[in-house]
Amino acid sequence: MAALAIVCPGQGAQHPEMFALALQSVAAAEWLDAYSVAAGIDVVAMARNGHGSDLFSNRNGQLLVCAAAVANWVALSTMVPQPMLFAGYSAGEMAAYGCAGAWTAETLARIVSQRAACMDAAAPCDGGLMAVKGLRRDETAALCDEYALAEAIIVADDHAIIGGRRGDLVAAAHKLERRGIWHQLLDVAVPSHTPLMRDAVAPFRAAVLASSLQVPAVPVLAGIDGMPTMTTDTIADTLAAQLAQPVDWLACMQSAAERGARIVLEVGTGKNLAKMFAECEEIDGIDSRSCDDFRSLEGIAAWINARCE
């Protein structure tokens, strides 16, 4: 039987119909109701009616992407085999723990809100992130040193997200433009996963430990190193550390492959993680898709179950 891994995306792909699949399930709709009450925001209505900053502000974005990922998994979980592991990209790591059963809907909504509040309190007013593709790891490190920036997310040996102050990112972008290196300034005001966020680490760690956290029966990979977390202290340590040090998504993909994953489903919204698995040169033999590739829960389940036979 092929082994299934569930991965949860971060922010960036929110859209009005991001809950359409989950709402095909009564259980997922009830989960969303409980989550929304605890969050103080009707996440389904926000997605449908929100515009611009409503969907992409730090707090709203995190609440939306975590809700979509977990609700999709609630809808699918009785239709497919049990996964061998969960993993999440950036804010999606919170959703991964939600999928794995570490928190109830109500607790997840509250802890995601606390995460956003800790980050907003720590973030400089002029922070940002930029995607860069086409530089080796040592070249990316040199660029960061030159412009007082830092690696935020490691995607591949030649693909990274870097972060820092907006003026420094713009200066680095000009240099990359002159060299013909692909780059894109992201519509993000918080320099997540960089040392500029160090003041968020301690208060968020305390918030995680104070929550009704349960160690999941199915492993969740830590975003900072791709290793499974097995205790409440390790979960709190790694989730908090992630705010101010790089997410090593490449290590997470390699770890999933090394542990035997052969089917990867990206729950939530967007297709970036499924694409990353498909394009990762360091791994092979993995079939990856996103929920956004399908129009029905039954279609997703049929795809997974056919490969698990």
UniProtKB/TrEMBL annotation:
GO terms for cellular component: cytosol. Gene3D superfamilies: Malonyl-CoA ACP transacylase, ACP-binding (3.30.70.250), Malonyl-Coenzyme A Acyl Carrier Protein, domain 2 (3.40.366.10). Pfam families: Acyl_transf_1. Coiled coil: none annotated. GO terms for biological process: fatty acid biosynthetic process. GO terms for molecular function: [acyl-carrier-protein] S-malonyltransferase activity. Residues 7-307 form the Malonyl-CoA:ACP transacylase (MAT) domain. This is Malonate decarboxylase subunit epsilon. The lineage of its organism: Bacteria, Pseudomonadati, Pseudomonadota, Betaproteobacteria, Burkholderiales.
